[in-house]
Amino acid sequence: MEIQSPQFKEKARNALANEQLQRAMGKAKTGFISKRKKSVEALPEFEDLRSSARAIKDHTLAHLDLYLEAYEEKVKASGGHVHWAETAEDARQAVLAICRAAGARTVTKGKSMITEEIALNDFLEKEGIRPVETDLGEYIIQLRGEHPSHIIGPALHLNKEQVEEDFRRVHTQLPEERDLSQPESLLGEAREILRPQYFTADVGITGANMLIAETGSSIIVTNEGNGDLTQTLPRIHVVVASIEKIVPTLEDASQILRVLARSATGQDMSVYTTLSTGPRRPGDPDGPEEYHVILLDNGRSSMLGTEFHEMLRCIRCGACMNHCPVYHAVGGHAYGWVYPGPMGAVLTPSLVGVDKSGHLPNASTFCGRCESVCPMQIPLPRMMRHWREREFERGLNPATQRYGLGFWAFFARRPRLYRLATSLAIPTLSGLAGRRGWFRSLPLAGGWTRYRDLPAPQSRTFMQQWQARSGAPHGREGGDR
After folding, report:
1. CA distance 124 to 131
2. Claim to verify: residue 11 and residue 98 sit in the same structural domain
3. pTM of the complete model beyond 0.85
4. 4Fe-4S ferredoxin-type domain: which residues (predicted)?
5. Measuring CA to CA, how many Å separate 72 from each of 63, 206, 214, 243, 246?
């Protein structure tokens, strides 16, 4: 997938002007939030489970090499194969080699953000192999030539009328009189088209919500069952997963699953939680003849031990974007790459570079809702601030922004001068605003006042008000110690 994050501002403006998108996002603002709230309130120990899940991932990341080696041994012991991929290209080539060896012309795919990250579909198509997305949302956006706008609801940006239009355009055998006005009928139409694909594909590709070192198993959680068909009916099952998906034991996985579904969709558990451990064994009624796991790094190792280490705890539930006012306003495609919302604002610069995605950590109100709902207690606002610092240090900000911050810093480093300047400027601005209490326009503030009024400051600075209330002598506050 081409990185379009540098166009975030332009894409955000277009999204705000897109009436259809705004209708779709309006529905998204309420459903996820209310369902999560209800599900969490029904589980008194939810906060303890969050702390436990965080501890599990912290422990695993501290010993990541050991658990990955243990996982590889278990996969091999069960008859499977492990392929190590340092880069996205390494992972793509590993998938291609497996498909070529099987003579595959068609592969079915379960929903997988990691295959979106490595742009696997585009790659396979160029190599003459047809990928078929089997998750309903992924299938819809594949028909449209789009990428997911949400990590758990790929077609969240669409309305059912658009989906019906796409089905009637692409499904040439669809009777004109068939009613597709309801979600259930759209689902039935998709199932009718997709069901034969499972039996003709030689390779099924899935991601993994977790990998279990204790057993060599991969876990996927779905609500449609398409993942089960993808990994059991084809002759070959390929799991593509990033290295941080590893957890030590089945017990650890079960604890994380208890916070995953509640955070993602407000369910106690997803409808299907499926474990795969190696290829079909003698006596098994179904399952693949070959089982391959591709373990992808693609920049994760370089995050270990840095300010962004904690981002590797992410379990891709989507709770941060479900509660993010910026995501609600512009949707996922504005972020210009695979991962949108607050988690994307941290992860994307880590994987593709802040020079290509510096707008994303700046697209935040720092309201803190993302951190408050994250089941893994990831400090997303703090890490976005770290990226802003990196961006400033490398001179990637606009010149006006850098000079403005430099001007402010000159005064901030000199407390007496700062107090003098603010004691003069703030009453002046307050007086200019008058009784209205705001500015419709102001020099150097056009980026704000073009869309909204700018509140005027109160007539006295904070320290002046503090001194008046506490009786503290002048100069004791503000750094003169």
Report:
1. 7
2. no
3. yes
4. 305-335
5. 15, 18, 10, 11, 11
**Same-domain pairing of 21 and 145:** no
Q: For residue 156, how far is the Cα from the chain centroid?
A: 13
- The end-to-end CA distance of the chain, in Å, is 54
- Same domain, residue pair 425 and 285: no
**What distance in Å separates the CA atoms of residue 144 and residue 236, rounded to the nearest whole number?**
28
CATH number, domain containing residue 10:
1.10.1060
pLDDT tier, 478 (very low <50, low <70, confident <90, very high otherwise): very low
Domain count, the chain: 3
Helix, strand counts (H, E) of the chain: 23, 12
In a domain, residue 158? The reply is yes
91 and 182 both lie in a single domain? yes
| 114-118 contact pairs (CB < 8 A, 24+) | 114/207, 114/240, 114/241, 114/242, 114/296, 115/205, 115/207, 115/240, 116/1, 116/147, 116/148, 116/338, 117/1, 117/88, 117/298, 117/338, 117/339, 117/351, 118/88, 118/91, 118/92, 118/240, 118/296, 118/298
Residue 375 lies in a domain: yes
| Pair (17, 143) in one structural domain | no
Nearest-angstrom CA–CA distance, 467 and 51: 41
Q: How far apart are CA 409 and CA 392, in angstroms?
A: 13
- DSSP-based helix, strand, coil % in the chain, nearest 5: 55, 10, 35
Which residue type is seen at 152?
I
Specify whether 275 is located in the same domain as 151: yes
DSSP 8-state class, residue 324: -
pLDDT tens column, 306-321: 999 999 999 999 999 9
- Is 4 a domain residue? yes
Asked whether the beta carbons of 375 and 255 are under 8 A apart, the reply is: no
Q: Is 193 exposed, middle or buried (0-12, 13-18, 19+ CB in 10 A)?
A: middle
State whether 5 and 146 are in the same domain.
no
Q: Which domain holds residue 212?
A: 43-298
Position 134 scores a pLDDT of: 96
99 and 233 both lie in a single domain: yes
Looking at this protein, which amino acid is placed at residue 452? R
Does 214 map to a domain? yes
CB atoms within 10 A of CB 476: 12
Convert the pLDDT of each residue in 72-84 to its tens digit: 999 999 999 999 9
C-alpha distances (whole Å) from 463 to each of 416, 425, 474 are 12, 14, 9
